[in-house]
Amino acid sequence: MIDTALIIVDMQNAFCTKNGSFWKRGRKVLNFKKVLSTNKKLISFARRKKWLVIFTKLVFTKDYSDGGLLVKRNSKIAELGAFQEGSADSEITKSLKPEKNEYVITKKRHDPFIGTNLLQILRENNIRRVIVSGVVTNICVESTIRSAFDRDLETILVKDGTSASSHKLYKSSLETINKSFGDVMSLEELFLKFEN
């Protein structure tokens, strides 16, 4: 029985291209080419293992009436028209295109369990373990892992499949996750663990 799901967090154009709104807000994703390459390999592995594959993306209505404090605290989101539904910014990057049998969770908060059917999908598919990758480490990725852990799901973070806007934030988040919320491993370590 397959009891594992891969959750790819926010690998959308907002974060995945230098024309994306995250970059236009003066932020960046360190080592991005490596992160993208790792996620391609990870998704391919998950498909071969027949794991449930789930993508998340952050998307708001054009008037941001659904943005809450997330948009209020980040005024440049609305100024730039970031993450708007139907925009290129809100779409999963083409190189990681989801397949028809895979899920895309549209979220309004950092935590993809809030206001979505993510938990229902996991429960209906008898998932007890989630492997998490994507961006950014210390915000939406960590929020995903914390929330999954609090719902009694085993969690694994693929450390070379994620990144933040600074090494300090990245390392601090990895330490927090590893200490309190789940296992942290490289893609190679993950392959060795699940290749049997």
Automatic annotation (TrEMBL):
Domain Isochorismatase-like: 4-189
GO MF: hydrolase activity
Keyword line: Hydrolase
Coiled coil ranges: none
A Pfam family hit: Isochorismatase
InterPro entries associated with the record: Isochorismatase-like_dom, Isochorismatase-like_hydrls, Isochorismatase-like_sf
Keyword Zinc: no
Organism domain of life: Bacteria
Name the record gives this protein: Isochorismatase-like domain-containing protein
Organism: Candidatus Falkowbacteria bacterium CG10_big_fil_rev_8_21_14_0_10_43_11
